[in-house]
Amino acid sequence: MSKKPTIAVVGSLNFDLVTRVPRLPELGETLTAKSFGTNCGGKGANQAVAAARLADRCEKVDVKMVGAVGSDGFGNEMKQQMRKEGVDVEDVRVVDGMSSGVAVIVVEDSTGDNRIMITPGANASVTPSSLPSWLFNPSTAPDIIVLQLEIPLETVQYIINQSSQIQPRIPVIFNPAPAVPLDESIYSKVEILVVNETEAAMLSGVDFAVREEAAERQDTLKRKAKEAVDWFVKRGARDVVITLGPYGAYYYDHQSGDQGWFNAHQIANVVDSTGAGDTFVGAIAVNYVQLKHAEREFCIEGGVSVATDAAAWSVQRSGTWQSMPLGKDLQEPPADNSSSSSKSVLH
What we know:
The longest helix is centred in the middle third of the chain and has 21 residues, at 214-234. By secondary structure, the protein is of the alpha/beta class. The protein has helices at residues 43-54, 73-84, 153-165, 197-204, 214-234, 276-293, 300-314, and strands spanning 6-10, 14-21, 35-41, 62-70, 88-95, 101-108, 114-119, 144-147, 172-174, 192-196, 239-243, 249-252, 259-262, 343-346. The radius of gyration is 19 Å and the shape is globular. Helix 1 (43-54) packs across helix 6 (276-293). Helix content is 29%, strand content 23%.
């Protein structure tokens, strides 16, 4: 196989307006912020850049972004910066008369936790009719499609349905964020489902609220994650990952039927968690297509191992794209793509 593997990310591009505060303000309270800055972002763009950087700016993998920006300075800046990271933005349309998507992000300086408010702007114009024809052509289709929910749900459902109907089927990584109620038939049509605890709770109905002390909290979260995974699997989901921030990630491997847990790396100084989840998704996508290109079998356990390393690297740095690791920043994954010293497997 000579052609480089290809990842297509269909999703949002948002210009981030980031304020760092010592703590989150109370209702009606005014705080003096510590700093203000701007970043290029959006879950779609973040996942595309994460994949491109982990592929050493597309030296090893082609990453194509499909989306839309407004005819404004924000849109121009985002496309320009994505090109610098190696992402192909040929299919990021510029929509006249609309603003680019904007995200207002407040980061609590003491913890690195964040709150995000999004104005969709041109992201709302990413409709089924706007999608490029190569996306579903068997001779030009990507090795995997990555989707989120910051573009219209109708478009996401259309892509998942189309990708599952053509032969050979195009695998999809689906990160349903921000979560909204979904037709349950969608789960059987995606290859990998990645959700955090908030999204898992909203979609499955499992209550992830935990009242135990820190020492018992992880065990309780494991039980709740297993309950949510079982819910998704009963509805046809294949590989499933539930990320639980500083506690780790729970996964289900559809090939073996195993469920397992990866402990998160213990980070003494979390600087900024913005983009960590998107780094996680981008890492799984790169791991998947690189193994496929090498004619080796992907397993979700190995993908989660690589993604956990990448996300841990990112939270120790400020910013979004600039905090995402290059492939050379991380150690090579184990040769068999399946071992880690910080996991447990439940049969």
